[in-house]
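Shipment paperwork, digital attachment
Item: protein structure file
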Amino acid sequence: MSKIRAAITGVGGHVPDYILNNKELEGLVETSDEWIMTRTGIQERRLLKGEGKGTSHMMEIAIKELLQKTNTDPLEVDMVISCTTTPDFVFPATGNLVCDMCGLKNAFSYDLNAACSGFLFGLVTGSQFIETGKYKKVIVVGGDKMSSIINYTDRATCIIFGDGAAAVMLEPDSSGLGIQDSILRTDGSGALFLGQKAGGSRRPASIETVTNKEHYAYQEGATVFKHAVSNMAQVSVEILQRNHLTADDIAYLVPHQANKRIIEATAERMNIKEDKILMNISRYGNTTNGTIPLLLWDYEKKFKKGDNLIMAAFGGGFTWGSIYLKWAYDAK
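Attachment content:
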C-alpha cells in the first residue's frame, strides 16, 4: 500500500482593507519611503481596524473562503490548528472561537504559537493526524493582528509588521503528492533578541510594564537578521540535500516574508534563481503566521500539480524550519 501523505487541497485568505503605506509612516516616526524600501522591501501593510476585532475575525473569513473553494461541508472538518502569536485572548483559544464562528461543530481545535515559524510547525503537526489515518480533513490557519502589539513610535518594528490570515486544507494523498519532509528547530536563547517582554506569567501586566511599553513586540534587528539568514538557509539547504534535490528541481521557494534582504540571502545560499522566489512583502509586510499561507493564496494559480515547493521560516524566540512539499492540484 502506498504511503499516505498530507496534501494541501485548497487555500483561503484574507487581508484587511486599511492600507498603511510608507508615506503615512513618515508622519509617525523618523523614516522615509526610500529608507524602508532599501532595508525591508515593504511599501505598505494592512491593518485590521474596528472595535473588538481580533485575529479570529481574519481567520474566519479565510476559513470560510477555503470551505467554499474546496466545496467542504463545515461538519466534515475534523480538526483546526490555529497558528498565531496574537490570540484574541489568553484563553479561550482563538482556534476554539474560529470553529464556532465558522460552524465547524465536529472539529476540535487549539492554538499553536511558534512566532513567525508557527504555520510551518502547524502544517507538520496537522500532517501527522492525516498520515496516521486518524483524520481526513484538517485545517491549518495562520494569522496575526500584529498591529495590536506594535508600538507605532518604534521605527525598528512599526515599519515591518502588518495584519492578515490564510488557511489551508490538509487531506490524505497516496499518489506521492503532499508533504514529503520537514526540519523544525528552536533555540530559546533567542528570546533576548526578538519577543514580547511582558504580558505572560513571568511578567504579568502591571502599571510598570505598561508604562515601560513592554507589551509591544521588541527586536534587535542586526542580531535577528544574522540568525534569520543563517538558520533559514541552513535548514533549506539541508532539506534539499537529504532529499537529493538541486535548485533546478524546485519550482518555487515559499519563504517567510520578514525582510526582502533575508529572503534574497536565503535564496542565494540555495542557488534559487530570482524568478522562483515568491514574495508579497511589498504589499503586506510581515504578517508573522500569515506570511507563508498568504503566499500560497496569492500565487495559487501559478502552482501546477506535482510542483516541488520549499517553504522556509524564521521567528522570534528563536524558531525556524523548512518543509519540502509536492503541490497536489491545479487551481481552477
